[in-house]
Specification:
The chain contains five helices and seven strands, in the order βααβββαβαββα. With about 170 residues, the chain is α+β, with helices and mostly antiparallel strands. The longest helix is centred in the middle third of the chain and has 16 residues, at about 90-105.
Length: about 170
């Protein structure tokens, strides 16, 4: 696990590192990739918020993108979460911080995401933090010559509070 990691709002100068993380070949199956210009455009939107996980040494360990911040429905989408190196617990730490931000700062009612059906590792992390499966998007994404199925998952504000109040081991 990464000691002294903090989640902060991303800055425009973080975009090259964000785009580079998306281009890692093993992530291609699980996340999309946008050009640096697309990231700049989205980062400037009032509907979108970018975060980066930064080590105590100032190195970027991951990033996350939230969308739907301007929606009156208080339903925020976790568009993307990517870590530079897996198996270090960074994703779980980032996700806990994102949950705190979404429900405590934004006062959202719901945080939702879609995850590829074959990404069982991510599904396990989401479920362990209180997310529920709520739907399936059968063969919704065509990438690299084949169709991929996605699962919809979400957590509501009251579910977040229940997980949060159950303690740090949740």
């Amino acid at each position: 696990m990464m000691a002294n990691m903090r989640l902060r709002l991303a800055r425009v100068e973080d975009i090259p590192s964000i785009a580079a993380m998306e281009r890692v070949p093993e992530y291609r199956t699980f996340v999309g990739n946008w050009t640096e210009d697309e990231h700049r455009e989205r980062m400037a939107s009032i509907d979108c918020r970018y975060f980066v996980a930064e080590s105590g040494f100032g190195e970027l360990a991951g990033f996350a993108i939230l969308r739907g911040l301007a929606s009156p429905h208080r339903s925020v989408r976790l568009q993307r979460i990517v870590v530079a190196n897996s198996d270090r617990g960074v994703g779980r730490i980032m996700l806990r911080s994102i949950l705190d931000y979404v429900f405590q700062e934004l006062k959202a009612h719901r945080l939702w995401l879609d995850v590829f059906e074959i990404n069982t590792r991510a599904q396990h992390v989401y479920e362990s933090l209180g997310f529920h499966r709520e739907g399936i998007l059968r063969e919704a994404i065509f990438r690299d010559g084949e169709y991929h199925t996605q699962l919809l998952m979400s957590i509501l504000d009251r579910e977040y509070e229940a997980v949060r109040s159950s303690g740090p081991g949740a």
